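User: ok so my PI wants both of these folded by tonight, can you help

Assistant: No problem, let's get them done. Here's the first:
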Amino acid sequence: MVERQCRYCERSFQPSKYQPGQLVCGEPACQRQRRADYHRQKVAADPEYRQVCLDSPQKWRARNSDYWRRYREQHPAAVERNRQQQHVRDQKQRLRDLANNNSAFDLKHSAAEIWLLGAGLRNLANNNSAPAQVWILEALPPRKPPASESCKQQRAGIQAASGG
């Protein structure tokens, strides 16, 4: 039989005698990719298929409206793991927002050096990277002290003096 080259992994394979036009080898990863590609093409080309794909999860959620509540009750470890991952995602989003802030573009070069101190330094001998969290904060201009007492204090003093 004729050997072919898989379009995904590019390894040689022999097509099935039942599928002589086979273009993808039988490896599970290649088959998964083939099915995903077919699905993507079908959704793009067939509006009826696309609508069925959109409606299916909505119907399932309507039939199983309490699924996620039950899942969270039965899997507290997954709930905690998700909570921790969400915390990390939130931190990354805040850092992205900070990086996209126009004032961050006004940063100047710093001649600062990094000194690593601690008992575990010998573990870093062959590895220059060390985990760190860096926060860049923009200083606010100093507030001007009030020229006189606040308006509330003045009103209260005037009202007390006129009312007494």
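One down. Here's the second:
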Amino acid sequence: MDYQSVRRYLLSRPEALDDFPFGPQVAVFKVKGRMFATLAIENGVARTNLKCDPNEAQALRDIFTGVLPGYHMNKKHWNTVLLDGSVPDFEIERMIDRSYGLVVKGLRKVEREALELAYGSETIYR
């Protein structure tokens, strides 16, 4: 996946919005005001930061050379995924879906339940 395809996929998640609180270099993707991803290009390589279960985060780093501890993030809960072709597209989509789902699970109950009711749990937590 490249920058634009990842951007489209991130924005395809229910009620996902992008914002640029850190300047035009880094897109921040949020659901209900909570960040679930960032997307940037550094040294000519696109990269995304994604929230991850701590146990899975380390396993993904061990499996894929393009998955690193989260850049400028809590390295226990965030991974940086290089969009350099070293991680299969389906795996990047799965990691995006997991990041989104983890953030939705952490929303206030009323926000979480509204999303689940409007879009279905299967869509929110795929």
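The chain has a mean pLDDT of 95. The helical segments are 3-12, 54-63, 89-105, 109-119, 121-124. Good luck tonight!
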